[in-house]
Write a structure and sequence with these properties.
With about 280 residues, the protein is α/β, with parallel strands linked by helices. The protein has a single domain, classed as Rossmann fold (3-Layer(aba) Sandwich). The chain has an eight-stranded mixed β-sheet, with helices on both faces. The N terminus and C terminus are likely disordered.
Amino acid sequence: MCILNNNDKLETVEKAVSYDQKTRAYAQENALRADKIIEYGPHKQQRIELFFPKIPEKDLPILVFLHGGAWIAGNIDWLRFMADPVIRQPAIFAAVSYRLAPECRWPSQLNDFELAFNSLFPALKKHGGDTNKIVVGGHSAGGQIAAMAVLTEKISPVLACMLVSSPLDLRYDRVPSDTGAGRVYQYLLERPEDDTDASPITRIKKNSVPFHLTWGSEDFVRIADSNTRMMQAMREEGQHVEYRIHTGADHFDTHLALRDPNNDWYATFRRFVANDYSFELSLKR
């Protein structure tokens, strides 16, 4: 068990604040505004922002992505910086926010994503999107939600699920409530025993969707551990899973790196869209 001391907690808070500031600053650099906003429910967090390539095209692939925030924080402000690199692929970018804990306990977040996903189709078809070319993903908690939606078949089949520094096993047992792991029990879950059902790693048996896992060498221990075990478990099941470990990157760096349209993560997105699964699974960067 990894327990943070006070200095570690302060450093984590400082990094989270810096991440918040950087996501907003990066978004302002391109000054892109959503081409369409979908409110898929009455709550202010039940919101989707759609961004379309500047030159209209047909049969565009779609990236549907959820923000992180440990299920208790975050919104679309943390995703807008991805809009420019995504539409440059070219692809449609759907940035999704969802209701937060503790106001809304699990599985509210999963149910929200199901509603959000299904509400996208009319707008995607109208603006040149090919709904047979959808990739879903998310950063941190958003990746856990995306993975659960795929693995429990809450959403229709997608080409791939691409997760960035996401917690894939929430079975933390007895941990201090003021730690990242402890927040799962304090804020997210109705009951401690719900941690198994909310863990993507326990849901992989029937999976047929390719997964791509990304985390940093300086990421939280629980993130690196659960992603490593998820990758191994999926391989043992004969499923297609790819991974990258970004040297020197922490939990927030892995997401901020996606401001670069030439990042390898987008090359992987394009491969999945093209149904190209040729990849060296042990690749480390």
